Amino acid sequence: MRLRREEEQSREIERLQRAKAQQEADAQRRALEARQREEEAARQAAEHQRQLQESEARVKAQKEQDAAAERQKKDKEEADRKAKEAADAAEKSRAQQIPPPQAPLAPSTSTPAAPFTAVTTAPQATNASAASAHANEIHAKYLELHARMKQFRNAFADEHKQKTSPLKAAVGDTRRNIRLRLGQINTDRKDSVAAIKKLREDSFNVALSTQGPTVDIRPYLISQDIPQLANEAEAQYPAFLLYLFICFEKFVLKQFEKEAASADGRTIQEIGLIAASLLADQRYMWKGIPLTDVLVAKLRRVCPLLFGIRGTMQTVEGRSRLGWLEKTGPSEESYGQKMRGLGAGYAALSLRSFNAKAPAIPMSDYWRAVVSICNTPAGELWPGHFAILYGLIRDYHKKFLTFYGAQARGVLRRATYDLPARAPARCKDAAGPVSVLPLGWRKEGISLD
What we know:
Layout: H1 2-95, H2 128-159, H3 168-183, H4 189-209, E1 214-216, E2 236-238, H5 239-259, H6 266-279, H7 292-302, H8 316-321, H9 332-350, H10 363-374, H11 383-393, H12 397-404, H13 406-421, H14 428-435, H15 437-443
Antiparallel strand pairs: 1-2
């Protein structure tokens, strides 16, 4: 009996050992499958980004070719018209025996320099340096637009501060109303809907319906192709409404920065909803083109990292280039809060969809912002990158996953695992909050494994 018991115990031990070995093999297999799924998701995400860029490049290149052909056709027609007018004038002069006026040998075919129309985004070179140069070129145009907006805003405000201006009361009241309404936004969706209604009625509709000066809107449009116009009058836009939009975007971004100090990000989401709704309103557009570039120009001035602009924080010029605009001295805490708020605000503006109308900022721009930060080389990473990334994904990971599925999961893994892991020493403190985000998401039933 003792021998039998020992034999049974020996068989049981062997069985347990075999079971343990099988469990370990199964665990290794599952881990391998998980890694393979992760790699496949990352590959699909990269492929999606490449296809998106190629598609946009083809569309932009075709638009540019069509625009160039149209300009060439117009130039030729203008040259033919001038030549015909010169010939008719000469014939008339000869008939009246009056010497013809002095004229150039050939009519000029050049046209006046047009204001900014659309930014071409299809560089022929595919290397990183060419892409960086192209990004800097676009960024420079937006900074020029920002300077133009500031000049216009100051001039318009100064002109209509005068007692003799019939717009004095309306300009002051609408500007104060915008600031008041945005400061009252909270997490209640009903209050946001009411605020949108009040902003339309008490500010934007007032500016739209008030008789006043107009302005050529084309210099304030960067990302859109300008449609063909029958005359210069079609390019006019109410100056009061443009002024109001410039004030509005300024107040919106300031409110994003202020609300970043709150642990609850829902207020920023509501402010983003209000801004996106007003920008997408057809009544305030020019020929179906929203004034989104006014907002983007300000964003590029205060938060260039959001658009893939790179540089150094070790010089005064470098810090200014990357959005460090503190005038009273450096404050890393205020800079980080500002970047978090602007990142969250950009997500609130872009990562949404409306029924029956296109969003002012395409959803693909949100993808591009997150991926551009994830693709930043370690040597060019700064704490601001992680502050912006935190704002972009903390409260918006669910929407990102809803819109992009497995590809978004792969991007979020890169953002929260890979990027913090390769962060330089100067970024460790800023990278910490990003790296722990998946822990909170697991409590919501969302796993990136």
